[in-house]
Predict the 3D structure of the following.
Amino acid sequence: MISRFFPVSARLLAAVVALALSASASAALYKSVGSDGKVTYSDKPPMTAKEADKTEKLGDVPPPGDPNAAKKLAEQSAEFQKRMNDREASEKKASDEKKEKADLLRRCQDARTQVRQYRDTGMTLYRPGEKEGERVMMDAKAREQEATRLEEEMKKAGCE
């Protein structure tokens, strides 16, 4: 229906004009870091290749009616980065706590096994002697003392 009223050339011209207008409306915002560490925000890409290496395209610029748009965008970017850093820190902390808890559990299990060996087994147990390579057999009293010492350490460490 429309093709009857508008010739092909008019439709093509309208499409080109629409594309040109939309391209100028969607400008980009660039964040550049200078050699002195100063951060600059601009709607134009950097002129030199050296500057382009330190430039990050942040996205489309809000409509030109807001004079503080670049500042708001920078604040939003900084807030987002802070949230990401906080999230990484909390995940690392949780991971470290989980590792510490697993390590404590393993040490507690090892200590319980040693206490059982000192008290419940009829095996002959030895401790290191005063001379290098010397082994001294532990009597019942020494075994009980060592088991009691281990139980006290377990309580201090927080073993259940």
